[in-house]
Structures are given as structure tokens and as C-alpha cells.
Amino acid sequence: MTGFGKTTVEIAGRKITIEIRSLNSKSLDLNTRLPWLYREKESDIRNIISKKLDRGKIDLTVSFDILDIENVPAINKAVVMNYYEQMKEIAGELNVKTDEQLLGTIMRLPDAFKTEKPELAEEEWLLVKEKIIESAEQLNNFRIEEGSSLETDLTGCISRILTLLTEVVSYEEERITRLRNRLKSLLAENIGTENIDMNRFEQELIFYLEKMDINEEKVRLKKHCEYFLEKTATEPPNGKILGFISQEIGREINTIGSKANDASIQKLVVMMKDELEKIKEQTLNVL
User: What is the pTM (predicted TM-score) of this model?
Assistant: First the structure.
């Protein structure tokens, strides 16, 4: 399930930004991007996120902008000049021309800047921790809103399946009549009407219709749909059980289609399957 949360805070000459994003995933997959100052707290951050978010592909980014010029690292001129001389020497030996991009490359080399790495103050960490929790809660609220829309879509699909199921009843009597007439016509064409034993024909017809009876499947399908609606109203996590129920719904729909032997009912079955596919796609986004 998708979500987004963002908070900012200013402390110790820095503006700290925390962003957290999520995509759907069957398990918790947390990816963190932290400045060097907060890497010692990565384990704590992971624990915070795992307690707040059940699952999902989570991307957490903590970044800061320096507001105080005193905190800007100084260029280590001696090191940069030494790098430059070495680069020119190597370029001359390889007969390679140097260009303006060389300085940019040198500035990314180790020790090009004079940096004093201060320790993370406990006061700052507590404030950042609070903002991480706040960002996670924003993401959760985003998920709750999306979940409400998902619930509306899922219940709508189930309602349409139940409506289609009631329409199946209207074709059942016609189905039996058409089947009886078709079988009788086939017998008449092959062995002649005068040779048909109607008593035996009716007995065989009843046996044949028992195999094609879909009442049991209709009852089970209705029960599965009602159970699905019941579970959508429960507290998460319920995504997996909704997935299991949708499989059972699909099994009953397929059985009705295979037993129907009627174009009108099979058309309704196709429409049910279309609604079921929407349900299966949406349940993947439910926690």
C-alpha cells in the first residue's frame, strides 16, 4: 500500500528533513538513506519503523541542509593541490588531455575537505527520532485514507458478484427446459421418436440434471462473498485472508461456469470473473 510522510526540523545550524515513502510489498522491506551523523542510529531507526509499519517497501531518507556558515567544511587546499599535480603527471605520462572537469573529480576524492565529524548530541537525536515517528504516522494516515477507498472498491465488486448471482436464478428454469428439448431432439434424430422410452428418458434426464445442478455452488459462493464483506470490516492485518477467500470465490464461479451448459449463465460467469480479477488485484494492496 502506498503512502508518504515528511517532516522538517531546525537544530544546531542544520535544517533536517525526514521523508518516508512506501509501496506495496508482502513483507517489510526497509531501505534507509542516512547522513554519516545518523548512521550509528540506523538500528534504532529500523526498530522504530518496524513497530509503526507492518509491511511494505519502505524508503526512509534523512537529509540536512547546513544553515550556519561555521558548519560548512573547508577545502583542504594542500590535499587538492597534491591531487592535481599527481593527476597532471599521470595525464602527461598517458598523453591524455586534462580539462575543467578534473577539479570536480578531485573534489570528490578522500580528504578533499577538512571535516571534523562531531558526535550526535542526544538532544538532537531525540528530536530527530520524534520527527521520524511523526513521518511514519503521516504515512499510516495516508494508508488509512487509501484503505477506505480500497474497501469501497472491494465491497462494490462483491456486491456486483452477488447481483449477478441472483440473475443466474432467472435462467435456470429455461436452462433445464432447453436441455430437455435438446436431448429429446437428438434422440429423435438418431433412433426415432417412436423408439424413445419416455419413462427411461425422464429417469436419465433427472440423473443428468443432478450432475449439472449448481445450487450447492450458488450457496457456497454467496457465503464466501458474505464472509469477504465481513472480513473487510475487521481490523488489519486481513489482506491474506481476503486473498484466500477470493480464491474460494473463484473456485465456485468456475464450477458454476463448467456446470452451466448455458450461454446466458456463462455470460454472467464471465462478468463475475471480471469483478473477481479486480478484487484479486486490490487485495494485494491490503495489509
Answer: 0.62
